[in-house]
Design a protein that fits this description.
heterodimer; A: mainly alpha; MetI-like fold; two-stranded antiparallel ribbon; B: mainly alpha; 13 helices
């Protein structure tokens, strides 16, 4: 073997080793969820000081008892429904508010559109952990404490800024000529917005829906602040807070819930990642 | 034709009408609460009643004399800086790997993005189980490989608990940073890299003297979002340690939650949360400068 070939081989080996290292670090908790979710209790609860019992593998046959517990005897199915309800409501509000705003900033506002858009985007950086104290007061003033309606009201404060920015950025990549042609053909400006623009924005709207879906699935701070009873919880709140009976953690069921929630989100992220990134990098990266 | 300038053709009117709901939402439900967050920090408001009285600097005096708060402030700084250091190293290294082509890359990318996709609270509960005092798989692995002789109480010892928090934060943020750095690498003009190779630059020189300087604005974006995500995050610490043992691992958000919501002292909770502002202002100013530079750079091209 020549020296150059040897060097190429070591570089390939190093590349694969590094790739394995990174996916090992990133994926390890998910592997651990998988193993925990399907292990029998006597295989699961063996102290880590017992070196003869390897925790990384199934020492006993896998079981579905934790999954049955999760869906049959906990409020998990209920939390899924609550979450889907909030997702649907927040998606409707976000699309109705952010899409016209994004269009307005990109096509109608002229020079100050970009500045104003950036101003709106910056409010996305104001974190829930700064706002939950005043919101706690606002929500109780409105009598919405411990209700899903409080989440439906507050979540758009996070989705609208980012989605307005997304739609604005998306529209700038859509050529203006189609709308211009429609106006030359005799459409009024309003008719263009109502009849022509929606077709052009569909991929942008899809991104808005997906972003809103992922954000509502992931949100924890506001849910923790506003919701106190178990039957009103969303998945991201109920699983870590309410799947604990007394002091006993049902680790099998907990990890099954974490796993089943992560999978759809992971698939969605893989498809939409590039669009999100364009939003985040704000033109610092020209794709 | 042109004299038909009705409402349906007034761009300024249409623009304002379409923008109004979003502006109203942002002003009423972000702008006003933001001001209220600061106003509340000077009040003695409680969650139980709707009364409201001025407390002046009372809340600030109380928390600045409180060792638990000072510890939380320090923890926030340590966790935020520690996490970003780890993230930058991991993300630039991972980006070098993921720009190459290799077998199974699609699957590897899927796994790499998992930590970013999973809800923070669910990731935190999984890590709580991984760091469990009795069943920790990390301890088993370290002992089985002969690296550990005693026992690590990951979430029971203040130093180890902070380390665990930094590991979890870096784990959940580095995929995001990697993707951003990859996007930056893809946007480096190929001629520059080729010129460096022609001039005889090897892998490391190319990385440190050509690519990293060009990547700086992109890495900065990743770090800025990372700072916001770490400094303002409540879920990881709340679920991993709950601020314990003995209030040694609180960060600003968890302490603000404990005092303001659980303890019903809205004024003090607000005052604690206000200390997040320096982190955010630094980020906002830096992002504005970056955006301006990108604008200028774009115009020059």
């Amino acid at each position: 073997m020549t020296r150059a070939a040897l060097r190429r081989l070591t570089r390939r080996a190093a590349l694969y080793a590094a790739a394995l290292g990174f996916i090992g670090f990133a994926g390890f908790p998910f592997y651990w969820m998988l193993v925990t979710a399907f292990k029998q209790n006597r295989d699961l609860y063996v102290g880590a000081s017992d070196l003869s019992h390897v925790p990384w593998i199934f020492n006993d046959p896998p079981t579905l008892e934790h999954v049955k517990l999760l869906f049959g005897q906990t409020d998990f199915p209920h939390w899924v429904l609550n979450t889907l309800f909030v997702v649907a409501a927040v998606v409707i509000i976000t699309v109705a508010v952010a899409v016209p705003a994004g269009y307005s900033l990109a096509r109608l506002a002229g020079r100050w559109g970009e500045r104003l858009g950036m101003g709106i985007f910056f409010t996305y950086l104001i974190p829930p952990t700064l706002l939950f104290v005043p919101f706690a007061r606002l929500v109780s003033l409105l009598g919405l404490q411990n209700s899903l309606a409080s989440l439906v009201l507050i979540y758009p404060t996070m989705t609208i800024p980012f989605c307005t920015w997304l739609v604005m950025g998306f529209l700038r990549s859509v050529p203006w000529e189609i709308e211009e042609q429609a106006m030359i053909d005799g459409y009024s400006r309003l008719a263009v917005i109502v009849k022509v623009a929606p077709r052009l924005i569909v991929p942008g709207i899809l991104t808005v829906i997906v972003f809103t879906f992922t954000l509502v699935m992931q949100e924890f701070v506001y849910a923790l602040t506003f919701i106190s009873s178990v039957d009103k919880m969303t998945v991201s709140l109920g699983v870590p807070i309410a799947l604990v009976r007394g002091d006993v953690y049902h680790w099998g069921a907990l990890m099954a819930a974490a796993l089943f929630t992560s999978i759809p989100l992971a698939i969605v992220y893989n498809v939409f990642i590039d669009r999100f990134i364009q939003g985040f990098t704000m033109g610092a990266v020209k794709g | 034709m042109m004299e038909r300038r009705t409402f349906a053709d007034r761009e300024d009117v249409l623009g304002a009408v379409m923008l109004a709901p979003a502006l109203a939402y942002v002003i009423v439900l972000v702008g006003v609460p933001f001001v209220l967050a600061i106003v509340l920090s000077f009040s003695n408001a409680t969650a139980g009643s709707l009364s409201f009285g001025w407390a002046g600097l009372g809340n600030y005096a109380a928390i600045l004399g409180d060792p638990i708060f000072l510890r939380a402030l320090r923890n926030s700084a340590v966790v935020t800086v520690g996490t970003q250091l780890l993230v930058v190293i991991l993300a630039t290294a991972a980006a070098q790997v993921f720009r190459a082509t290799f077998r199974g890359k699609r699957f590897a990318r899927f796994v790499l993005l998992l930590p970013w996709a999973v809800p923070v609270s669910l990731a935190a509960i999984a890590w709580t189980w991984i760091f469990d005092s009795t069943f920790s798989v990390i301890n088993w692995t370290l002992k089985a490989s002969g690296l550990l002789h005693g026992w690590l109480y990951w979430l029971g010892d203040p130093g180890l608990a902070l380390t665990a928090i930094i590991i979890v934060q870096a784990w959940r943020i580095f995929p995001f940073a990697t993707v951003i750095v990859l996007a930056g690498l893809a946007s480096i003009p190929q001629e520059i890299v080729e010129a460096a190779v022609v001039d005889g630059a090897g892998f490391w020189r190319r990385l440190f003297q050509v690519e990293l300087p060009l990547l700086l604005p992109v890495v900065a974006v990743a770090v800025l979002f990372g700072v916001v995500y770490t400094a303002t995050d409540l879920g990881v610490v709340y679920i991993l340690t709950g601020g314990g043992p003995a209030n040694t691992t609180h960060v600003l958000p968890t302490l603000a939650f404990q005092r303001g919501i659980l303890g019903a002292d809205l004024g003090q909770g607000a005052a604690i949360a206000v200390f997040l502002l320096p982190f955010l202002i630094v980020v906002a100013v830096a992002m504005l400068r970056l955006a301006r530079r990108a604008e200028v750079g774009g115009a020059a091209r």
